[in-house]
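Need tokens for this chain, all 69 residues.
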Amino acid sequence: MDKLEYALRTIAKCDLCNGLGYQGWANGEDFDMEDCVCNPYGLILEDGEVIWDNGLLSEPELFTTQEAY
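Here are the structure tokens for all 69 residues:
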């Protein structure tokens, strides 16, 4: 299993964000969102498919040294 497939499965199984990969907050005027802890690569998903990748998945040294977390 490659890193992208593992990352997508982790996001899909997350209970914190319900598989979205991000969490959002609103108070009536302001809205804020940030990546969920299940999405350390900052992937942006649409219907379970990656529509944006910041490039961290293609850099194996970040994955092995945990610098991406």
